[in-house]
Write a structure and sequence with these properties.
GO terms for molecular function: clathrin light chain binding; structural molecule activity. InterPro entries: ARM-type_fold, CHCR, Clathrin_H-chain/VPS_repeat, Clathrin_H-chain_N, Clathrin_heavy_chain, TPR-like_helical_dom_sf. It comes from Piliocolobus tephrosceles (Ugandan red Colobus). One of its GO terms (cellular component) is clathrin complex. This is Clathrin heavy chain. The protein is of the alpha+beta class. Helix 33 packs parallel to helix 35, helix 45 runs antiparallel to helix 46 and helix 56 runs antiparallel to helix 57. The longest helix is centred in the middle third of the chain and has 18 residues. The strands form six sheets. The protein has a seven-stranded antiparallel sheet, with no helix packed on it. A four-stranded antiparallel sheet has the order 1-2-3-4, with no helix packed on it. It has 61 helices and 26 strands.
C-alpha cells in the first residue's frame, strides 16, 4: 500500500492512518480506514492531528492568535460531535494517545495526562469529566540539550512512565539520547543514556506472565549499545531476585548516526522488535536477547511505527508513505539465522548451537504454530556450509538435540542412515535405550540391515506387528533349513499369499533362494510372478539385484510386457517375433542392457523405426560392434531404409572419418574439410589425419592448422609452414587462431634460424602473449634474447608489469651496456634477486644496485657481493640506510673477516654523511650490542666532535662519555670539557661509580651542582683546599654545610665552625658542641652558638645551656651573668649541677643564685668558705638537711659561731639532737 504524504502523518493504529496535507493552500486531514480501504477528508486549520487508537476520533492542536495559548480539541469524525477541548498555557512539543481515554502531553518543562471521558460525555455535559493532570517534571538534561522528544509511553497500569529524547552536539554528525524513567508511586525518576524504552509482558518457561521494562542503552561516544530487559516491579527486599538480562548489540550500519526510533515487546511471539531511523528491523529472542534476524525493510527512512493489536507483528511507515507489516516466521528465520550470519570460526559451534537451542525452545512454545522442527528445516541443515575444523551444522544439530530432547521421525531417520552405513551398532543401542529416537517402520527397515534384534525392538515400539511376523517367519524358515528339518516351503508361501502377506513372502523367498539353484526354478518364477501382479516396483528391484537366473524367462517376459516393463521383456524374450512385437510397443532402447538382441541387424533397424531417439542408440551400437556386424552390412541396411542421416552419422566416427576426409581432399571439397577439421568433437585418428594432410601439401593449409591446433601438434605445424614458405599462415595462426601458442611457434622459428625481420614483424602483431615467460625462456636458451628487445620495449611502454618481461629487458640492457644503471634504479618490476645474481659476474656495482632495491629481501646477497669485490663503502652505506639490527649483527660478528673494513668505512665517512637520526641510532645500537667500545668511541667522536649535523645531540654525547668511562677513561675529561649538551648529573653518577672522582667533580662543577661536587671531593680524596676554594667561589650554604661536616669529622673544629657559620645551617650544632667539648674549645663554642642564636633565631635548651657552660668554663662570669639575666632557654639547674661536680663553685654559685636553688647555693657558699652567706642561703632554703650540712661544715672548720646558728635551728627537732651531739663530740 502506498500513500504520498506531503506534510505530516500521525501515530498510526491498526485501524486508521491520519494524514495532514496541503491542497491549494488549504489544510486537509485525511483519515484512512485500513480495514475497509476507505478514506475521509476534512478541511481543518490545525497544526497537528492525532488519531484515536481504536475509534474514528481525532485530537487537533491549534494556536490562538495574539495569545501564547495552545488550543486542543477532540471530536468524533463520524458523528461530527465535539467531545472536549482544552486551553494549554505551556508550549507543547509532543503528544500521543497512550490508551483509549488518555492523551499524554509533553511540554517544555512538564508532562501531563489529559484524561478524556469519550463515551460518557453526552450524559455529563454539565459536569466536566475531562481532567488534565501533571504527572512529573521533565529532567533538566532534556532542557539543557534542547532535546527532540522521540517517544513517550506508560505501562498498562500507568505506574511507570518513560520519556525518550534525542539531541546532537556536532551538527548532526552523531546522535545522542537520554531517557527519563519515572515511578508514579514513588515519585522518583532516573535518567538513562540511550534512545528508546518500552513496557510489556513476557511469558516465561513456566507459563508465568510478568511485566518487564525493556530499553536500549548507549553511552556517549560509544559505538556499542546494550539491550536491557528487567523486572522493575519486584523489590529485592521480597527475597526474590528480579529478572534481568543485559546483552551488547551492534546497531551501527552504513550510517554511523543511525539510531532506534521504536521498540516493542511482543508477548505472543516472545520477541522484541526494534526499528531504526534508517529502516533496519532487529528481532531479539525474549529469553536470551539473541538476535534472531536483522533486515532492512526500506531504502527510505522509517519515521513512525505501532504494534499490531492482534499481537503478531508491527506496522511501520516510511517517508514516502509506504506501509510495512513486519512479523516473524520462526522456522524461516532460524534457517536464515544459520545461513546468513557471519559466524567467526572460533565462535561457530557455539553460535549454531545457540540457534538450535532457541529452535528447540520455540518448538515447544505454545505460542509458536506450526512447530519448527520439520523436514524442511532438517533438509536446510544438510546444505549449510561447514567451517573448516568444526562439526558440520547437521551433526551439530543432532548433537544438541540428543542432549536436550528426543528426535522426531524425520530426524531419527536422517541420523541413523550414516550410522548404519558405518556399522556403529553401539550408538544405536544407546539411543534406543535412552529413548532418543522416534520409532517407525521406515526406521526399523533401515536398522534391519545392520541389526535385526534392534530392528525388532523398533517395530515393537511402533506397533508394526506385520514387520515382526515377517522377520520371525524368515527366521523360522531359515532355522528349519539350517537344521535339515523337512518343511513345505510352497505351503508356507501359499499361506502368506492367501493372507496378502506379500512382503513377508518376498522376504522368505529372498533368503531361501539366495543360492540360485536350478531346482528352485518354480519358486524363482513364483517370486517374480506375485510381485509383477501386485507390486511392479518390487519386481524391478528383483531384476536389478540380478541374482536369479533359473526362472521361466518366457513366462516372466510375458508378464513384464503386460505390465509395461518392455526393457525387461526384451531381456527375457528369445523369440524374434516376440522381440519385434515388444520393440513396436517400446519407444526407447537401453544401450546398457543385455545386448543379446542388439547384434541382430534386423531387430536393431526395426527398433529404430519407433523413435528418432533410438536412431542415435542404434548408430552407437553399430559403431561399437561394427567388427561383428560388418560395415558394409550396416551401410546397406541404412540405404535400404533410406536413412541417409544414419549413414552420415555412422561414417563420421572412428577410423571411418579418415575415408571421409580423404574423399573431401580428392574432390577438393575444402569447405567441408574445414568444417570437419574444425570440429573438436569429431572422432578420428589425429596422427593419421595430420600426416595425410601434410603429404597432400594443400595450397590452403587451414585444415591442417585446425587439426594440429586441436590435438597439440604446434611445433610440427610451425616447422611445416615455415619450410613450405607458408609464412602468411604462420601469422594467421599466432594472431587469429591461437595466440596462446605463439611462444611454441616462435621457438620453432628460432631453431629454424628464421629471419629477424620476420620474427620481429610477427611479434609486433602479437599484442598480448598469455605466457610471456615461456617465450623469453625460449629466446634466452637459444641466446637470441636481444632479438626481442624492440617488442619487449613496446610492451613495457604499453604498461605491462609482467616480471619476466622486465627481467628480460634488464638482462638485455646489461649485456648491451645500454644505461643499465638508470634502468635498475628506476624500474620497479624486475626480479631484484634474479637480476642481481645475473650481474654478479658481469658488474658487481650493478649487482649492488639490484640487491639494494629489494627492500631487504637480498641482504645476504648484497653483503656477499660487496665483501667479495671490496665495495665496503657501498656496503657501509647500505647497512646504515637499511637500519636492520639482524643485518648489523651478521656483519659485525667476529667471524666476519671483513668486519674491520666495514667498520672503517662506517666510521670514516658513511655515518658522518647521514642526516637521518634513526640511521645514527640503529648504527650506534649495533656497535653497542657487539661490544665494540673503542670503535664506538671513534664513531661517536666523528659524529659529535667534528661539526656534524648531530654534534649537539644529547643522547649521542651521553653515549660517547659513558662509553669512554667504561672503556677509555683517559678521554673522559676531554669530552667533558668539549661537550655541553649531555646529562650531567646522570653521567657524573656513572663516573663516580667507576671511581672517576675527578671527572665526576668536574661534571658537577660544570653543571653548577656544587653540593654534589664538594661531596665527591670530600668523600675519599679529602681535598679541603679545593673544597674551600669551591665553597668560596659559589658561596652556597649547602656547600659550606657539607664542607663543615667533613672538617668537623677530622677535628678541624675552627674551620668547621667557620664553614657552619657561613652555611647559616643549624642542623649540625649538636655535633659541633660535642666536638668542642671534647677538645675544650669553649671559646669556639661561644662564638658558634652566639652566631647560631643571632642568625637563625634558634631557641634551643641545649644551645643556651652549652653557651652558659662555655662562659663558666672560661670564667667569663660577667658575660654569663649578663646572658642568664636575658631571655634564654638554658637549663641552669643542669649546668649548675655539672659545674658543681667539676668544682666550679663560683660559676655554680651564680647559676644557683639566679634560679634560685638555696640548698645548692648554701653548699656552694660552704665550699667557698663564705659562711655568713651560707647561713643566709640556709635560712632561705628552710631545710633541716641544709642546716645539718652547714652545722657539720662549720664545726669541722671551727666556725663555731656559724655552727651555733645552724645548731639552734636543729635542736628544735628532737630527732636530730643525738646526731648534732655526735658531731660536736667528734
Amino acid at each position: 500500500i502506498f500513500f504520498i504524504l506531503p506534510l505530516q502523518l500521525s501515530p498510526i493504529s491498526e485501524k486508521f492512518i491520519c494524514v495532514k496535507e496541503n491542497v491549494n493552500d488549504n489544510t486537509q486531514v485525511v483519515v484512512i480506514n485500513l480495514q475497509n480501504k476507505t478514506s475521509t477528508r476534512k478541511y481543518m486549520k490545525a497544526d497537528s492531528v492525532i488519531i484515536h487508537p481504536k475509534d474514528p476520533i481525532l485530537a487537533l492542536r491549534g494556536t490562538i492568535k495574539n495569545m501564547n495559548t495552545i488550543f486542543l480539541q477532540v471530536f468524533n469524525i463520524e458523528t461530527k460531535e465535539k467531545i472536549c477541548s482544552l486551553n494549554l498555557n505551556e508550549y507543547m512539543t509532543y503528544w500521543k494517545w497512550i490508551n483509549n481515554d488518555t492523551i499524554a502531553i509533553v511540554c517544555e518543562k512538564n508532562i501531563y495526562h489529559w484524561n478524556i471521558d469519550i463515551y460518557n460525555s453526552k450524559k455529563n455535559k454539565e459536569h466536566n469529566n475531562n481532567t488534565l493532570t501533571k504527572v512529573f517534571e521533565k529532567a533538566q538534561i532534556f532542557v539543557d540539550n534542547n532535546s527532540q522528544i522521540l517517544h513517550y509511553t506508560t505501562d498498562k497500569d500507568m505506574k511507570w512512565c518513560i520519556l525518550c529524547g534525542i539531541f546532537t552536539q556536532d551538527q548532526g554528525k552523531s546522535i545522542d539520547g537520554y531517557m527519563q524513567l519515572y515511578s508514579c508511586e514513588k515519585k522518583l525518576h532516573q535518567t538513562i543514556e540511550g534512545f528508546i524504552g518500552c513496557f510489556g509482558n513476557f511469558i516465561f518457561d513456566n507459563l508465568d506472565m510478568k511485566p518487564l521494562f525493556c530499553f536500549i542503552e548507549k553511552k556517549k561516544n560509544s559505538s556499542i549499545s546494550k539491550l536491557h530487559l528487567m523486572d522493575i516491579y519486584t523489590n529485592k527486599s521480597e527475597g526474590v531476585t528480579p529478572h534481568k538480562i543485559v546483552k551488547e548489540i551492534n546497531l551501527v550500519n552504513e550510517s554511523l548516526n543511525d539510531f532506534p526510533i521504536y521498540i516493542s515487546m511482543n508477548m505472543l511471539q516472545g520477541v522484541i522488535y526494534v526499528v531504526t531511523k534508517y529502516s533496519y528491523v532487529y528481532i531479539f529472542d525474549e529469553g536470551t536477547l539473541t538476535l534472531i534476524i536483522k533486515e532492512r525493510i526500506s531504502e527510505d527512512n522509517i519515521f513512525i511505527c505501532c504494534d499490531s493489536k492482534n499481537g503478531d507483528g508491527i506496522y511501520a511507515i516510511n517517508k514516502k508513505g509506504k506501509i510495512f507489516y513486519v512479523t516473524l516466521n520462526y522456522a524461516a528465520k532460524i534457517i536464515c539465522l544459520l545461513k546468513n550470519s557471519k559466524f567467526h570460526e572460533e565462535y561457530y559451534s557455539s553460535s549454531v548451537a545457540e540457534a538450535i537451542l532457541l529452535m528447540i525452545k520455540k518448538n515447544e512454545d505454545i505460542r509458536i504454530i506450526p512447530p519448527l522442527r520439520t523436514q524442511q528445516v532438517l533438509n536446510n541443515f544438510k546444505y549449510f556450509k561447514t567451517v573448516p575444523g568444526q562439526l558440520s551444522p547437521l551433526l551439530l544439530y543432532f548433537s544438541v538435540l540428543l542432549d536436550y530432547d528426543k528426535l522426531n521421525t524425520y530426524e531419527s531417520l536422517e541420523l541413523v542412515k550414516p550410522v548404519v552405513l558405518q556399522k556403529k551398532r553401539e550408538y544405536l543401542e544407546k539411543w534406543i535405550k535412552d529413548d532418543k529416537l522416534s520409532s517407525s517402520e521406515e526406521l526399523g527397515d533401515l536398522v534391519k540391515a545392520l541389526d535385526l534384534r534392534l530392528a525388532l525392538n523398533i517395530y515393537l515400539r511402533c506397533t508394526s506387528h506385520n514387520k515382526i511376523i515377517a522377520i520371525y517367519s524368515v527366521y523360522f524358515v531359515k532355522f528349519l533349513g539350517e537344521n535339515n528339518i523337512q518343511f513345505d516351503i510352497n505351503g508356507i508361501i501359499d499361506y502368506l499369499l492367501s493372507r496378502k502377506k506379500l512382503q513377508e513372502a518376498t522376504s522368505i523367498l529372498l533368503d531361501y533362494l539366495k543360492d540360485n539353484k536350478p531346482e528352485h526354478k518354480h519358486l524363482q518364477t513364483k517370486l517374480f510372478e506375485f510381485n509383477l501382479y501386485n507390486n511392479v516396483q518390487v519386481a524391478e528391484t528383483l531384476f536389478q539385484m540380478d541374482i536369479f537366473t533359473y526362472y521361466d524367462k518366457h513366462r516372466i517376459a510375458y508378464l513384464c510386457e503386460e505390465n509395461g516393463l518392455y526393457q525387461r521383456a526384451l531381456e527375457n524374450y528369445t523369440n524374434i517375433s516376440d522381440i519385434k512385437r515388444v520393440i513396436n510397443k517400446s519407444t526407447f532402447l537401453s544401450e546398457n542392457r543385455n545386448t543379446q538382441y542388439n547384434l541382430d541387424i534386423e531387430i536393431l533397424f526395426e527398433f529404430m523405426k519407433t523413435s528418432k531417439l533410438n536412431m542415435e542408440l542404434v548408430i552407437a551400437i553399430c559403431v561399437q560392434y561394427y567388427h561383428k556386424i560388418g560395415i558394409k552390412k550396416i551401410i546397406n541396411k541404412f540405404e535400404e531404409s533410406k536413412n541417409y542421416e544414419g549413414i552420415f552419422y555412422f561414417i563420421k566416427v572412428h577410423f571411418i572419418m579418415f575415408k571421409y576426409i580423404e574423399a573431401c581432399v580428392k574432390i577438393n571439397n575444402i569447405k567441408e574439410l574445414d568444417r570437419i577439421c574444425k570440429d573438436k568433437n569429431a572422432k578420428y585418428n589425429p596422427e593419421q589425419i595430420k600426416n595425410y594432410l601434410k603429404e597432400c601439401r594443400l595450397s590452403d593449409p587451414r585444415p591442417l592448422i585446425y587439426v594440429c591446433d586441436i590435438h597439440g601438434y604446434i611445433e610440427e605445424l610451425a616447422e611445416y609452414l615455415y619450410k613450405n614458405s607458408l609464412l602468411k599462415y604462420i601469422e594467421v595462426y599466432v594472431i587469429k587462431v591461437n595466440p596462446s601458442n605463439a611462444n611454441k611457434v616462435i621457438s620453432v622459428l628460432l631453431d629454424l634460424d628464421a629471419s629477424e625481420e620476420f620474427l620481429l614483424n610477427l611479434l609486433n602483431q602479437i599484442k598480448n602473449i598469455s605466457n610471456i615467460k615461456h617465450l623469453i625462456d625460449i629466446a634466452e636458451k637459444r641466446n637470441r634474447l636481444k632479438l626481442l628487445l624492440p617488442w619487449l620495449e613496446t610492451r613495457a611502454n604499453e604498461g605491462y608489469e609482467n616480471i619476466e618481461l622486465h627481467n628480460a629487458l634488464a638482462k638485455i640492457y646489461i649485456d648491451l651496456n645500454k644505461d643499465p644503471e638508470s634502468f635498475l634504479k628506476t624500474n620497479n618490476f624486475y626480479d631484484k634477486k634474479l637480476i642481481g645474481k645475473y650481474c654478479e659476474d658481469l658488474d658487481s656495482h650493478l649487482a649492488y644496485i639490484a640487491y639494494e632495491r629489494s627492500n631487504g629481501e637480498c641482504d645476504k646477497e648484497l653483503i656477499n657481493i660487496t665483501s667479495k669485490n671490496g665495495l665496503f663503502k657501498l656496503q657501509a652505506k647500505y647497512l646504515v640506510k637499511r637500519q636492520s639490527m639482524e643485518l648489523w649483527k651478521m656483519v659485525l660478528d667476529e667471524s666476519n673477516k671483513y668486519r674491520k673494513n666495514v667498520i672503517d668505512q662506517v666510521i670514516g665517512s658513511t655515518l658522518i654523511e647521514s642526516n637521518n637520526a634513526d640511521e645514527i641510532t640503529v648504527t650506534v645500537k649495533a656497535f653497542i650490542e657487539q661490544k665494540l667500545s673503542s670503535e664506538l668511541i671513534e664513531l661517536l667522536e666523528k659524529i659529535v666532535l667534528h661539526n656534524s649535523e648531530f654534534n649537539d645531540n644529547k643522547n649521542l654525547q651521553n653515549l660517547l662519555i659513558l662509553t669512554a668511562i667504561k672503556s677509555d677513561s683517559k678521554k673522559v675529561i676531554e669530552y667533558i670539557n668539549r661537550l655541553d649538551n649531555f646529562s650531567g648529573l646522570e653521567i657524573a653518577a656513572v663516573a663516580y661509580e667507576y671511581n672517576l672522582r675527578e671527572e665526576a667533580f668536574i661534571i658537577y662543577k660544570k653543571f653548577n651542582c656544587f653540593t654534589s661536587a664538594v661531596s665527591v671531593l670530600l668523600d675519599k680524596v679529602l681535598d679541603f683546599d679545593t673544597a674551600i676554594e669551591l665553597a668560596q667561589k659559589c658561596n652556597n650554604p649547602d656547600v659550606w654545610f657539607i664542607l663543615g661536616k667533613a672538617q668537623l669529622k677530622l677535628n678541624k673544629i675552627t674551620d668547621a665552625i667557620d664553614s657552619f657559620i657561613k652555611s647559616n645551617n643549624s642542623e649540625a650544632y649538636k655535633e659541633v658542641i660535642e666536638k668542642c667539648k671534647e677538645n675544650n674549645f669553649y671559646e669556639h663554642i661561644i662564638m658558634y652558638l652566639t652566631n647560631l642564636r643571632e642568625s637563625t633565631f634558634l631557641k634551643d635548651v641545649l644551645v643556651d645551656s652549652e653557651l652558659v657552660y662555655a662562659y663558666a668554663k672560661l670564667k667569663k662570669l660577667s658575660d654569663m651573668t649578663k646572658f642568664i639575666s636575658s631571655t634564654n632557654s638554658a637549663n641552669l639547674q643542669m649546668i649548675g649541677d655539672r659545674l658543681y661536680k667539676e668544682q666550679e663553685y663560683e660559676s655554680a654559685k651564680t647559676l644557683y643564685s639566679s634560679i634560685p636553688n638555696n640548698q645548692k647555693l648554701t653548699v656552694c657558699y660552704l665550699k667557698l668558705k663564705e659562711y655568713a652567706l651560707a647561713i643566709e642561703a640556709a635560712k632561705k632554703a628552710k631545710s633541716l638537711k641544709t642546716w645539718k650540712e652547714v652545722n657539720f661544715v662549720c664545726v669541722k672548720y671551727k666556725q663555731l659561731k656559724f655552727a651555733h646558728v645552724a645548731g639552734l635551728q636543729l635542736i628544735m627537732h628532737a630527732d636530730h639532737l643525738d646526731e648534732i651531739i655526735k658531731i660536736y663530740e667528734k
